[in-house]
Amino acid sequence: MIEINKNYNESNLETMAKMPNNFIDLTVTSPPYDNLRAYNGFLLDWQNVIKELYRVTKDGGVVVWIVGDATIGGNETGTSFKQALFAKDCGFNLHDTMIYQKSTPPLTHNRYEQNFEYMFVFSKGKPKTFNGLREPREYADNRKNKAFGRNKDNSVDVGYSSKYETRLKRNVWKYFAGGGANDKIASQHPAIFPEQLANDHIISWSNENDLVYDPFMGSGTTAKMSILNNRNWIGSEISSEYCNIIEERIKKAWEEKRKEKDLTQNTLFGDGM
């Protein structure tokens, strides 16, 4: 039997072997790819990971798989595309190919600077949850807040409408690479996952009390943002060193959550003074 709200210091395949079919609502993860970073000597068996993710994901559940490609001898590996196509072969729908645009790209000198990773959104059937995020709308003229309609006499009615101030976010999301770098605990990990990125996917594809999984927990960002957004979670992390980082961040996330709850209660009921 598997426990929720727990990180497992083991391979993700061992963790998923404990899970029943149709168990997870949402997976948000960024696996190590193409040996771009030394991951304490562990290798990625991505084919079996994707197969197991399909088995444990609920009907209507979503997997957000964030990856890039190494460039070796001037030739990109294309591993990300191989993984996406393999996921489709396993039964997933490729619901969306989103882009994580990094605000601090590395210098490559002999080509246009590469400043993105793919965020493949796989779904098991039609996604059961989509809480679409909105962003400020850009306008080409001063018609910003005008809504056009017809009066009963068929005359044009021009009025103010706040719904025209925002639009559904596009699928290119920009974040500071290593977002959460102000978190000194997280910065001990070589590949910090942007907190806002994890937050935005968790809000978009799950609801409160849903179960979120990260098979490559890393520094624990998925767990932290699940806690702060009232989601249950499970993590797998094979590196004991990184598990220590995860435990510290989880502890601080629960402390932050308790402070938020206390502040809300004091606001609603007063501090008793």
Name a few traits of the molecule.
8-stranded mixed beta sheet, Rossmann fold, 2 domains, single chain, 14 strands, alpha/beta, two-stranded antiparallel sheet
Polypeptide structure, described:
With 273 residues, this protein is an alpha/beta fold. It has two domains: 6-132 and 169-269, Vaccinia Virus protein VP39 (Rossmann fold, 3-Layer(aba) Sandwich), CATH 3.40.50.150; 134-168, no CATH class. Helices cover 29% and strands 26% of the residues. It is built from six helices and 14 strands. It has helices at residues 12-17, 46-56, 79-90, 195-205, 221-228, 240-269, and strands spanning 6-8, 24-29, 57-67, 71-72, 75-76, 93-102, 116-123, 134-136, 146-150, 156-160, 166-168, 172-175, 211-214, 232-236. It has an eight-stranded mixed β-sheet with strand order 1-14-13-2-3-7-6-12. The protein has a two-stranded antiparallel ribbon with strand order 4-5. Strands 8-11 form a two-stranded antiparallel sheet. A hairpin with a 2-residue loop joins strand 4 (71-72) and strand 5 (75-76). Residues 186-190 have low confidence and may be disordered.
Assembly form of the protein: single chain
Number of domains: 2
Helix % is: 25-40%
Report the β-strand fraction as a percent range.
Answer: 25-35%
Proper CATH architecture of the largest domain: 3-Layer(aba) Sandwich
Helix/strand class: alpha/beta
Question: How are helices and strands ordered from N to C?
Answer: EHEHEEEHEEEEEEEHEHEH
**Strand segment tally:** 14
Radius of gyration: 21 Å
CATH topology grouping of the largest domain: Rossmann fold
Please summarize the sheet with the most strands: 8 strands, mixed
